[in-house]
User: What shape does this take?
Amino acid sequence: MARVYIKHIGEHLGKQVVLKGWLYNKRSSGKLVFLQLRDGTGIIQCVVFKGDVKEEVFNLADSLTQESSIEITGIVKEDKRSPIGFEIGVSDVKLLHASKDYPISPKEHGTAFLMDNRHLWLRSSRQVAILKIRDEIIFSIREYFKNNDFTLVDSPILTPAACEGTSTLFETDYFGEKAFLSQSGQLYGEASAMALGKIYCFGPTFRAEKSKTRRHLTEFWMVEPEVAFNTLDDDMDLAEDFICYIVGKVLKNCQAELKTLERDISKLENIKKPFPRISYTEAIEILNKNGNPTEWGGDIGGDEETIISQQFDRPVMIHRYPAAIKAFYMKRDPKDPRLALAVDVIGPEGYGEIIGGSEREEDYDTLVTRIKEQGLPPEAFDWYLDLRKYGSVPHSGFGMGIERMVSWVCGLHHVRETIPFPRLMDRLKP
Ligand code: 4AD
Ligand code: MG
Assistant: This one.
């Protein structure tokens, strides 16, 4: 008899099947035991009726403990009340391994406890739903780029210099030399774009963030497209199209997961082009009008992003920030050199910055000046400067933090639930 996965159970209606998995929950009432079996593809109710099975099978079913691994044989029946439309009429139960005193019971637990038990917490339906949506998001990202002629070019993780400023670098010893964990693959992405035109890199990035917020991890995944000959406007067009594609895919393929998370999907259905585009200067005006005192030149932090996002029903793109608060590689606005041709895409519903990007400085001398101004060692960037020596072109790109995206799409409170094993300032285990 074939072993089947719960996801495909509907193809076996009326037939006998074998299911393997773990006991999620159990309820008994006299002659009936209801076993909730999970196998990673779904959860199904398996009904054990005393009159249908051997006495020892019934007693075993009745005594099963949460998260024991089991094998169930039974007939697939239609069940209108079940969320998946089917249940199993059990004929046999085998215990594979008995779980004793599983620490996470169906009752509420505190966050610290759940985080300490993250390796087990992953088994809960809510966490499974989040991980499935994360998978869908990553798959749709790769699909989007494949469909649009981008080539994946991975950048290194061990690097000799900073990309996004020196304050959040993780340092490590590299055979007697200093090396740093990558904060962003961008600089390598730019080199790759000069070879292949349209590229993206996608990998883990590291920042020694000393801030304990609901948006910051010390290890997170970033996807970074970079396109030769693209301007800032092209960059914004790409960011907008990209976000709409990803959200559309999740809506199409993850309805069950969004339901498990009780996500208000009308908010996601609203995510359509065009996204509002406002300048940094306009953003400051919006803040001041709403009682936030940030002055021109000041940073737009999490609280400010929330106020701005509340004015719109979809992501908002803020462009042309003061150059002084942005990275060295950003091109200045030819119309106003105080400004950098940068863009941040702010998620709706207070989710904050999801994408950060810019047009890059393509002039050799200007870039050397910027590197020196920021106190960065020019010799570490000699290879990067070469890109401005041999056929330099305008180009632009951006980085999207996967966990920020998952957090918004799933409607979560904190990014710690968006990645299987989160790394935070105060957490390196499990
Ligand atoms: O705005 P950031 O710092 O941009 C860059 O790193 C550029 N080099 C990207 C590029 O142009 N190729 O980071 C990009 C995104 C942010 O918008 C945010 O979504 C995410 O990365 N991010 C974080 N996510 C989780 N935890 C953190 N500590 C993050 N820092 C940035
Ligand atoms: Mg940023």
